[in-house]
Specification:
The protein is of the alpha/beta class. Helix content is 36%, strand content 19%. The longest helix has 16 residues, at 101-116.
């Protein structure tokens, strides 16, 4: 970036891209520096010759430098689009990834499947979903937005994360019930779908170096990255309706291991789903009370 303020919006964007920033990131940051909404990219094109005042140029330069240092774009702008929702995010929560929309869609599909089938004996009549480790509330809010009739709960051990998620729910007008606790320990009753994007990065994974701006406790889970998934698997059977589904997001190379854990825990119809890049990103299974774990 030049040390002199660029004369126009177009020059500011060009300088940022010359410094190695992606065009979309540069546009989002310039809109934020200008206090314009993030969907206003067309406005930038029609005002590219507008002059950029010194204060805004300095603000934009600072944002660009922070992005170049690896800080997530969502933390810099305070907003992330996820499954058709505009979420407010900051350093208290993970930056929601597009890959997690795979988990959301599977949860919606599982709910629809449950709704079309007669309720098994012992099942509660209302469709209930719980999102474990909700963070910004992304999964729970997306499911509630898509299926308003569902009862949706969300859990996180972090009070800071719950503050972010609750604020998102209030702003979006979505009635999600939030609980503080470790996985299912604070939840009561049974659910038709338990969905979770838990920590799944192995301690010592070299990729952690690129994630230093995000909360470590939401990323790392033991030597192989599967400690929290194991805990969820231990707790889930006592909180699933007959025929209910446990759906888990995991790392790009963990699908086979998670399917094996699901099978050993007694889940049936164990399978995985692909993310937008064609990677097995989520694995899940259906709970049948008569199944013997480890069979």
């Amino acid at each position: 970036m030049t040390t002199h303020p660029p004369a126009t919006l177009a020059q500011a964007l060009a300088n940022a891209q010359t410094g190695g920033l992606a065009r979309l990131d540069a546009q989002m940051l310039l809109l934020h520096a200008l206090d314009r909404p993030p969907h206003d990219r067309a406005w930038l094109l029609t005002h590219d010759t507008d002059p950029l005042d010194g204060a805004t140029a300095r603000r934009f330069t600072t944002l660009v430098q922070r992005r170049q240092a690896g800080e997530p774009l969502a933390y810099l702008t305070g907003v992330k689009e996820f499954h058709g929702l505009s979420l407010q995010v900051d350093r208290r929560v993970l930056d929601p990834r597009p890959d997690t929309e795979t988990l959301v869609q599977w949860a919606i599909d599982a709910l629809d499947l449950q709704a079309s089938a007669p309720a098994p004996a012992g099942a509660q009549p209302h469709r209930r979903v719980i999102d474990l480790g909700t963070g910004s509330g992304a999964i729970a809010l997306a499911v509630k937005h898509a299926r308003r009739e569902a009862e949706v709960m969300a859990v996180d051990v972090s009070a800071d994360a719950l503050a972010v998620a609750s604020a998102n729910a209030k702003r979006l007008g979505l009635a999600v019930h939030f609980l503080q606790g470790s996985w299912l320990q604070s939840a009561s009753g049974r659910f038709d779908v338990i969905a979770s994007n838990p920590p799944y990065v192995a301690a010592g994974d070299p990729h952690l170096a690129a994630l230093t701006h995000e909360p470590l406790q939401a990323l790392v889970s033991g030597p192989d990255g599967l400690d929290d998934i194991r805990r969820i698997l231990q707790q889930a059977p006592d909180h699933l309706n007959p025929g209910g589904w446990l759906l888990l997001e995991h790392g790009w190379d963990q699908a086979a291991s998670v399917r094996k854990l699901l099978g050993r825990a007694g889940f049936e119809k164990v399978q995985s789903r692909l993310d937008l890049a064609g990677i097995e990103r989520c694995s899940g299974g259906q709970w049948s009370p008569g199944t013997t774990a480890g069979a």
